[in-house]
Amino acid sequence: MKTETMLGLMILGIIISVVLAGLRILLLIRQDFRSKLDLIGTISMGIAAAFAVFSFAIWCDQAVQILQWTAKGYDEYQIRQGLSNPTTFKNIFAGDFATLGALWFPKVAFLAAYSPAYRAFEKKLRLLFHITIAVTILTFVGSIATFVFYCFPVSRNWDLTPPKGTEMCIIVVIWNPIFIACLLNIISDIFVLAVPVVALLQIPGPKSRTQRFGVGAIIGLGILSIGMSFYRMLGAKLDGYTNGKLLPIGERNWHIIGNLIMVVSSLIAFSLPSLRALVRKRLKNNRSRFTGTVSSEDQQHLGIGLGRAESWKAANLARIQSSSRF
């Protein structure tokens, strides 16, 4: 991949991240009632977008530097030598560390969006929801711990001349931590994506096109993010850069774009319930504030519906839906 193309895609990723965070904030502002979960979801998506922008900006800076060297007539070897300095590796470590936040915080926002419907969930789905929250927390802590402690202290990640008797340890070019971080992301994604699927299956009767499309869009983007995690794992091993092989700039750019796709698809997938709520609020602004029952239209919220509940649960859910966005 050409560096110019990589730079353009990174800029597009920054724009998408900012827009998604802005839409989430707009939804919060337009709500008549703002619960703690609304605030948690909005803050989480804002943090995720900030991490994504930070990570993408680092790669943009490197792309600009490469283009400047290319304009001066530097060859591939000279460019790679120019990138082999402590500042570059420090920035890469910071960018990859930020990527963890950009991958996990959208999951927090997504789960926060489902929480108001929690009481309408069947028992098995409530159990899955609890397990998913625990898995999300544990995998995030595990990925952070991997980045912090695998090469400890973290300054070793940009120390290109370690003291005698000490091995060089740069986590971004070592197979094990890359494998662990990607695997933990895949595991957490599978659990989070299982929530809307199981919820859809629990809805009695035929599923509407809106329900199927809503879940399908989330799952499709989630699978894309998972696929990019596999690509990062396999690419790191098969391309050999974790064994000391220097990748050509074009191949390096493909790995960088793999990170971009992984993050952006995750951001969009886990933003869809809130984006749909924003559209619904705009189109149904005059909808009744409280009906005491859950209408079929309200059941389609979040693109999944909420299943059959006892009457008191249905009334409680309708209150939640009418007082905020659920």
What keywords describe this structure?
11 helices, elongated, mainly alpha, Rhopdopsin 7-helix transmembrane proteins, 326 residues
Description:
The protein is an all-alpha fold. The chain has one domain: Up-down Bundle (Rhopdopsin 7-helix transmembrane proteins). It has eleven helices and no strands. Helix 4 (86-114) packs antiparallel against helix 5 (123-149) and helix 7 packs antiparallel against helix 8. The chain is elongated. The two termini are 44 Å apart. Mean pLDDT is 85; it is low at 292-326. It is a multi-pass membrane protein.
Write the layout of secondary structure elements.
Layout: H1 3-30, H2 36-71, H3 76-83, H4 86-114, H5 123-149, H6 175-201, H7 209-238, H8 249-269, H9 272-283, H10 296-299, H11 311-323
Strand content: under 5%
Please count the helical segments.
11
Low-pLDDT windows of residues: 292-326
Instruction: Indicate the radius of gyration in whole angstroms.
Output: 22 Å
Give the overall silhouette.
elongated
Short description:
The chain has helices spanning 3-30, 36-71, 76-83, 86-114, 123-149, 175-201, 209-238, 249-269, 272-283, 296-299, 311-323. The protein is mostly helical and 326 residues long.
